[in-house]
Amino acid sequence: MKKLTIWVLTASILLPLLVAPHLITYAIGGKVTALRGLAFVVLVLFTGLACFGNRKDADELISRIVTVVKKPIFIATLINLLLLALTTVFAYDKPAALFGEPFRMEGFLTIFSAAVVGLGMAVLFGKKEWHRYITLTACMGLVIFIIELWQARRGLDSRPDALTGNPMFLATYFLFTIFIGATLYLTGRSGKKN
């Protein structure tokens, strides 16, 4: 069950390719729906691993959760989520605060889902899983770049979005993948020196 959870978390790399043509926001809506579903599956698998897995795996999982929970970044993220939950409760437009607006989908549920997936990765990923995830993320960045070039060449849009639904989202994604690529390059160089 642990390996299944790790592979489900690794599958989050495919989110940039998801498109749901039947939704109002074909690009963003499909990705956000998949992210929320992914978070739900991760929570179910975590619960199954803790409750129904063998004792050794359950103890290791609880031990890793305790280790992650003590880190300052987790505490900051938890405080942020609690404040977001509080502002969602007292928001003027509660549905928009909870679910987000169709063209951005930045509501509390999306942010909470991203936090659940991030927590799952922090708890279950070891060095090997992180290296695989970072490498596949860099490869996905290349795929998205090729899609953007194809859109630009065909003249489909004055500002190609490469399945992200928004050129600003694409720019943010590229900044992230450039950082990931630089990390891979620098770790590879430091490994050769040792």
Distance between the termini: 36 Å
Secondary structure tally: strands: 0
Write the H/E string, N to C: HHHHHHHH
User: Any idea what the radius of gyration is?
Assistant: 19 Å
**Fraction of residues in helices?**
over 70%
The assigned structural class equals: mainly alpha
Number of helices: 8
Principal-axes shape call:
globular
Q: Poorly predicted ranges (pLDDT <50, ≥5 residues)?
A: none
Roughly what fraction of the amino acids lie in strands? under 5%
Whole-number mean pLDDT: 84
Largest beta-sheet characterization: none
Question: What's the quick description here?
Answer:
With 194 residues, this protein is an all-alpha fold.
Could you characterize what this model shows?
The structure is a single chain. With 194 residues, the chain is mainly alpha-helical. 76% of the residues lie in helices and 0% in strands. It contains eight helices and no strands. It has helices spanning 2-10, 26-52, 55-69, 72-89, 94-99, 108-124, 127-154, 167-193. Helix 4 (72-89) packs antiparallel against helix 6 (108-124). It is globular. 19% of the residues are buried.
List keywords for this structure.
194 residues; mainly alpha; 8 helices; globular
How are the SSEs ordered, and which strands pair?
Elements: H1 2-10, H2 26-52, H3 55-69, H4 72-89, H5 94-99, H6 108-124, H7 127-154, H8 167-193
Helix pairs in contact: 1-2, 1-6, 2-3, 2-6, 3-6, 4-6, 7-8
